[in-house]
Specification:
With 65 residues, this protein is mainly α. The chain has one domain. 91% of the residues lie in helices and 0% in strands. It is built from three helices and no strands. The termini are close together. Keywords: Membrane, Transmembrane, Transmembrane helix. It comes from Caldovatus aquaticus. It holds the Pfam family DUF2065.
Length: 65
């Protein structure tokens, strides 16, 4: 992965997150409230799962290219 590819991936994530806030601000506010109320261990586990899935997906897509 190149630095340019990493920056492009970050740009896509920011664009998608921005669309969520633009299209459904109330739902995003509720999601953030639920996140702030969640226990730290649950957030840590969810973050780790998301990171592993993201890395695995990037690895699979990199191999397919």
């Amino acid at each position: 992965m190149t630095v340019q590819g990493l920056i492009q991936a970050i740009a896509v994530v920011l664009a998608i997150e921005g669309l969520f806030y633009a299209l459904a601000p109330g739902a995003m506010r509720r999601a953030l409230a639920a996140l702030s109320a969640a226990p730290e261990e649950q957030l840590r586990t969810g973050g780790l799962v998301a990171a592993v899935i993201g890395i695995a997906l990037a690895w699979v897509l990199r191999g397919a290219a």
